[in-house]
Amino acid sequence: MDPEQIVRAFGPWALWGVAFVVFAECGLFAILPGDSLLFTVGILTATGVVPHSMVFVCLVLTVAAVLGNVTGYWIGRWIGPPLFKPRAGLVGRVLDPKHVERTRGFFDKYGSRALILARFVPIVRTFVTLVAGVSRMDFRRFIAYTAIGGVLWAVGVTTLGYFLGNVGFIKNNIDAVLVAIVLVSLIPMGVEYLLARRKNAREAAAVPSAVPTSVPTESPARTTD
What we know:
By secondary structure, the chain is mainly α. It contains 10 helices and no strands. The protein has helices at about 5-10, 15-25, 35-45, 55-85, 90-95, 95-120, 125-135, 140-165, 170, 175-205. The radius of gyration is 26 Å and the shape is globular. The N and C termini lie far apart (about 105 Å). The mean pLDDT is about 75.
């Protein structure tokens, strides 16, 4: 899946072909090269191979990314009830409705950050959208934060390719750069995980240990002469 070959294969429809791939990768298929295509489109826009302005390119790709997430969300809502229902055996344990309830609790607590951070992690950005739909996350909240993530991802990665794609080292080592993009995209998730662990450790240390209290003994009754 060489990104430049994919873009050039679309010919004069390069932008729209990439937009379709981004749409599918954000809501349907997790194995498509979304990050690398955005970066490559930025390079080819700067060199004139993609005959559109950078503003128009970013607008089209952002809309495609957000629409892909919306599609994945509604697919999740549609398949959730028939998929997660009480069953016997192994399938019943794997597709237990309790998992949906736990996921709903996760999105109630971390959904906003999860939708934005997951956008920068390949594969995860596809499934987090589906899971948000399965757990029936509030759609207004979902669309607000998935739009923020879509703008940051589509505009950010494409702009990176636009301004840095013609640097000699980057142009001659595009594969290494794309690997670096993936690694950098994992940093926010790692930081979030470490901060959560530190917070949990502080909360655990702040809980006082239970000390058994002794029951006071009654003093003997005093007698009077």
